[in-house]
Amino acid sequence: MTQRRALLLTLCIAAAAVHTKVPSAQAIPPFSKEWVAKYTKPDSADEKDKAFAELITKTVKCQVCHVGTTDKKMRNAYGKQLSMLIKKDNFKAERLQAEPDKCKAEIIAALDAVAAMKSGDDKSPTFGELIAQHKLPGGDLAPAAAVAAKPAEPAPATPAPTATPAAPPSPAVLEAIAKIQKIGGTVQALAMNDDSLVVDFHLGGTALTDEGLASVKVLPKLVQLDLKDTQITDAGLVNLAGIATLNRLHLEKTKITDAGLVHLKDLANLEYLNLYGTAVTDAGLDHLKGLKNLKKLYLWQSQATDAGVAKLKEALPTVSVVK
User: Fold this and answer.
1) Is 190 within 8 Å of 198 (Cβ atoms)?
2) pTM tops 0.70
3) Going by C-beta distance under 8 Å and a sequence separation of 6 or more, which residues neighbour residue 296?
4) Across all residues in the chain, what is the average pLDDT?
5) 55 in Cβ contact with 154 (< 8 Å)
6) Read out DSSP for 22-48?
7) For range 190-212, the mean pLDDT
């Protein structure tokens, strides 16, 4: 068993210990329902509205988020963004029955968040703009014949060498995963072929405290952390100081200030940082000048000024700042 497979298996076991059973690979039924209700108008007098509704409900269906007609594991660009916000483990049958309104609100919030994201580079339309134009947010649907005609991958000439079994994650890592899930977070592998970890408290981290964030520093290969809309303060960010693998960090609409950013100054691999809707000022930007790999910084509705951004760009000339 490869190290990646061992870690994925362990995550599944840890999830089962906190929840119940692993969900199926099928799409979340209420997600499809809310998507159709939000974006289609089957009763509209506009022929374009009618055609789009029919396209979504009768032709495309799962391909709103997925690629091809048979492989439901491969997501398009739109589906990948949604998968970061909508976790199947949060929408099991028991919860859907017990908290239908809350589940609906979480799905709609995720749809709104992804609708505001760019579908490609900075010059591309947002996913929401594409939908408003009666276009598929994840790109045009490939013809079924083309998908079916795709040549199969050739079999290897010789059997691949057997990987050395990896040591199982430590009890401390398993305990950290359980704690994160218990307070509303999720822990997932970045991709099927990548055992880097993504931790997400957005939409599920109401019980998260500064002390609770200590669990994330125990995880190996943590590359993405989403703390948006949580109650995290400057004190909580001390737990991120030593996570050298972290390259994407969401802190938008949290209670952090300039003082908290000092704990991020040594995150050498950080490429994306979102400080939208925080109390960060120009003084806080000084702590970011050593982040040489930083490529994207969001300061919208923060207290940072154009002058402060200009000084930051003197130290980081390649960073793209959205303000």
Assistant:
1) yes
2) no
3) 271, 272, 273, 319, 320, 322
4) 80
5) no
6) PPPSSPPHHHHHHHHHHH--TT-S-HH
7) 80
